[in-house]
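subagent[fold] <- orchestrator: predict structure for attached chain, return tokens only, no commentary.
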Amino acid sequence: MLKNPFIPIIIIGLGIIILYNIFSENKNTPKQENNNISSKEDILKARQEKDNFFKKNEKSPISDKDNFQKLNYFEYDANYIVQAHIHALSGKDTLYIASSKGEKEPYLQYAKAHFDLQNKNCEVVILQKVGGLPNTPFLLAFKDATSAKSTYGGGRYIDIPILALKNKENITIDFNKSYFPYCAYNPNYICPIPPKQNNLDIKIEAGEKN
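subagent[fold] -> orchestrator:
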């Protein structure tokens, strides 16, 4: 019986096509990573970029850009990176939070985060803006014992990416990323004031300062 000399070539060709399709699919599939974890170098770089944005960009909240130099921060401290246990709130009750202008804005109480810091057990509510864009990060707005002293009296914020929180039982919260809301620099902005549940009785000497 005669053998078809082209069969081995056809088999090899099919194998190449299959492997190509597999690698192409993996390459084009977007990776969903936990973007809430950053290195010290990443945070310092982000601070420089924010300074440049505040000084040069037309959307900057700084009115007097000519005299603006840079924002002030506590020294980076890895002790303020905590592992928090997440308790998702099934009810997702709406919380009307007072703003810097005295008005109230609706936020969903998405989850509670429990963590230990400075030998104390802390609990904060993580918020989701009602009517926000689909990719709007969750908000951790808090006050601590530095508020109105070495940091802005209206509290500080930490953005938590959606993928870092949804369907997670534990997340990383890095207080080195905490920042002032825009109303700290310009009274024309409206900013939510942290709810009472997020008033921490410890000093968080990390992130942005006066």
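orchestrator: received. Logging for downstream: Strands lie at 72-73, 81-88, 94-98, 104-117, 120-129, 138-142, 156-160, 170-174, 208-209. The first strand starts at residue 72 and ends at 73.
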